[in-house]
Amino acid sequence: MSIHIDEEWTDRDFSGEELRDTTWKQCVFLRCRFRGARMEEILTESCRFAECDLTGALLNGSVHRNTAFTNCRMQGTNLFASRFEECKLTGSDLTESQLDGFTVIGGDWSYTNLRHANLSRQNLRGIRLCEADLRECSLEKADLREADLTRAILAKAKLAGADLRGAKLDGVDFPSMLVKGARMDIAQAVSFLRAFGAKVE
Fold this sequence. Notes:
Blueprint: E1 3-5, E2 8-10, E3 23-25, E4 28-30, E5 43-45, E6 48-50, E7 63-65, E8 68-70, E9 83-85, E10 103-105, H1 186-195
Parallel strand pairs: 1-3, 2-4, 3-5, 4-6, 5-7, 6-8, 7-9, 9-10
């Protein structure tokens, strides 16, 4: 197990490396590559990964606290049973990533690409997902209360049984969503009806 505190790497290639159980605190990674790296059970605290490539990396069981992954490539990344606490993933691409059993507590996931992701039964309460790409995602029975979904792309997203009460849905294309069985508050229900041309008085 190795511990790194307040270190910075730029354009470093960690691809394929064995980094399991590593702890990084207040570290910065700029344009670094972690393609296929073994990063199981790593711990990051207050770190910043900017424009990094984590394609195919193994981060299962990892824990991230107040860490930023901004504009990162994370396609096919294994995030099984990983944990993100108050993290920022704005602009990152997580398509085809393994998200089963992962935990998200707060944070900003705006502009992320989560297309086709299985987020069913996930607790996403209070998370910022502004303009996130959630096309064809499974959000069935997910807890989205107080989440910010402003202008999120939810075309063909499955929301059966999801709890949307208190969520911000400004600019969302209601007709493109599959919302049968979703729970809404009164204001959301009115917006939903108006999106289909109903006159609500």
